Model the fold of this input.
Amino acid sequence: MNRGLFFYTDAFQAYDMGPHHPMKPIRLRKTFELLDSYGAFGRLPLREPAPCPVSVLEKTHRHDFIQAVDYLSSGQHFPYSYQRYGFGTGDNPVFPGLFEAALLYTGASLDCASAVAEGEADVAMNIAGGLHHAHHARAAGFCVFNDCAVALRRLRERWDRVAYIDIDVHHGDGVQELFYDDPAVLTLSIHETGRTLFPGTGFVTEAGEGDGRGYSVNIPVWPGTNDLLWLDAWREIAMPILRAYKPGAVVLQLGADAHALDPLAHLCLTAQGWLEAVQDVQSLGVPIVAVGGGGYNMTTVPRMWALAASTLCGLDLPDDTPPDYAWHEEMPRLTDEASFTLSDAEMSDAKRYNDRVVAEAKETLFPYHGL
Ligand SMILES: [Zn+2]
Done:
């Protein structure tokens, strides 16, 4: 059984972009309380995270960007020129305390990476992390600091080769970009195609550059893709490459927005279909830093992250949620009762796109991995 660690604090609630913003911090509390109602923290040690030191953050983000976040967080006048840092949009509004809140979710992922690198845990989880769209000097897609990248750099201090695995419905563009020329950090993302979804990138042709060529793996899938097709593409491309790469440790981004009920994207996965990819990553048998990510349906995210915690940390949670869980009525079970069916036309469009992507990925990427 895996030795797990779970980093959590109610102070995560401060990363709150307002009542009309789709990323609601309540999803974190609902997940925590779900696990707590199962008594999970009797077996899974709970830790309070620390904010990320700025000196560590500066290895991932440009100094002037960090300073800008600090300045904006204090609620002072918003200079027009600061739009270049990605703030002031509907996606990334400025709010008081933004800097401290962003340092905290980033620090929690850093703490996870340190715990894993120091051999204190085989799996460390931070559901507040996984903010994969943050760029070197620009906030984007609800993300300010790229905690995934910070955790990967910490793992690299211990291991020669590490992998970033992203099962969020959106392309993990920020992480890919930060390690695009680095063969020591393989980035892999399976997501809805950039032709129909933010951030519009993540095609097979984005395969890395220079020494990093072949170490940036993208698996785009078509809207409507269900468990069957998603897992088929995943197992044809992701798993062979990961097994061949043999990372010393991985950062697993657990975006829950590929679920059929997610309001921001167009895939048709079930919680249990998505979980199979988590089980596959676990089967690699290497230490895992598991971070959250997207997920905008408040009755699917807590279930999916509880399932991930159950699998990764060996909790073996029963499918029926505890009756004393505050949201038991709206989430009576962890898994979905039925799969979501597609029309024949939808299925054939998704399948045709899948077949093309799998063939293209094999041709483009497999030679770099001796496959
Ligand atoms: Zn997402």
Remarks:
- Residues 344-365 form the longest helix (22 residues).
- The CA atoms of residues 72 and 78 lie 7 Å apart.
